[in-house]
């Protein structure tokens, strides 16, 4: 009796769902921070509510990332994709590891900013006030820096997926979509 199974051709459906949900939430969070939150004065009463939503989204992203890391260790996955040259394989690895590390750094510096500013009561309890500026707290600079790095990594990741789909036409994107494994 053969106890080995054929290699998977797609990722597990839960992994696929977590991937796409993580990507959507990261996009919403980056947009919310860069295009919305930064333009609202800290004296505006809605700012704390919006920061709360942003922080909850960040926490959900962290949980999804941890779930994905657990799935990586416990589920059958497709063999590494043939992405081309050694440099392309190295870039793939750097981008994928970077996406995890930088997204975790984003959550850490976001929590660090709120903690350093003493803003948890204003954001999560509706008591107290936000500081005049979050820029007075060092984790805020890290949060901004990592947001730019994350945006770059996401752009490279999406660009590479589109390149595989529409230029190489190698079906690589199918691996991270729902269907038989």
Mean pLDDT: 92
Measured between the Cα atoms of the first and last residue, the distance is: 21 Å
How many discrete structural domains?
Answer: 1
Count of individual beta strands: 0
Shape: elongated
| Secondary-structure element series | HHHHH
Q: Strand percentage, roughly?
A: under 5%
Class by alpha and beta content: mainly alpha
The poorly predicted ranges are none
Number of helices: 5
* Quaternary status: single chain
> What gyration radius follows from the Cα positions, in whole Å?
19 Å
The major beta sheet can be summarized as: none
Describe this structure in words.
This protein has 181 residues and is an all-alpha fold. It has one domain (13-176). Helices cover 68% and strands 0% of the residues. The protein has 5 helices and no strands. Helix 1 packs antiparallel against helix 2 (45-74). The chain is elongated, with a radius of gyration of 19 Å. The two termini are 21 Å apart. The mean pLDDT is 92.
